[in-house]
Amino acid sequence: MNVLAATESIKEKLGPKVTADLFDLFDSMIQKSRQEIVKEQVHEHEKIELRFERKLSEVEARLLKEIAAIKNELKLDIADLRSELKSEIETSHSKLKSEIEALRVEFKSDNDRIRIEAEKNKADLIKWMFLFWIGTVITILGGLFGFLKLFLNQ
């Protein structure tokens, strides 16, 4: 059925004034329904927004707790690493000290050995020097006696 035809038939049966009042009533009811729907939607939107904010706050609080726990865990890990590093440094330091001391002992023994060899070489050198000096003195004296004998015999 056509809306215009239905409107005409209602006007004929009810009259124009009643039909206009009836349509005004329908319009006001539709307008009121729309307003109520909008109010319900706004109200529902506010509920959803509140739930969202509450959930967001819960998630934020949970994240802050997790971040704090991780932060504490990291602090403990850093403290453990520091103590491990400190003990390793102390161990390395003591090893280096012992190695340096071993090198000092080795250096001292090498130095003493070299000193003994130098003294031995020095004694051998002095012995050979005396032998060469004696040989040289004898040669010079022999040459001098030979020279004197040659000049004195003349």
Describe, in plain words, how this protein is organized in 3D.
The chain is mainly alpha-helical and 154 residues long. Helices cover 97% and strands 0% of the residues. It has one domain (3-152). Helix 1 packs antiparallel against helix 2 (16-152). The relative contact order is 0.02.
- Distance N terminus to C terminus? 183 Å
Determine the structural class based on helices, strands and strand pairing. Answer: mainly alpha
Unreliable residue runs: none
Average pLDDT across residues? Answer: 88
Beta-strand share of residues: under 5%
Largest sheet, described in full?
A: none
- Reading the helices and strands in chain order gives HH
The coarse overall form would be rod-shaped
Radius of gyration: 61 Å
What's the β-strand tally?
0
**How many separate domains make up the residues?**
1
| Count of helical stretches | 2
Helix fraction by DSSP (H/I, runs of at least 4):
over 70%
What are the defining features of this structure?
154 residues; mainly alpha
Task: Please give the structural blueprint.
Blueprint: H1 3-14, H2 16-152
Helix pairs in contact: 1-2
Question: What's the short version?
Answer:
With about 150 residues, the protein is mainly alpha-helical. It is built from 2 helices and no strands.
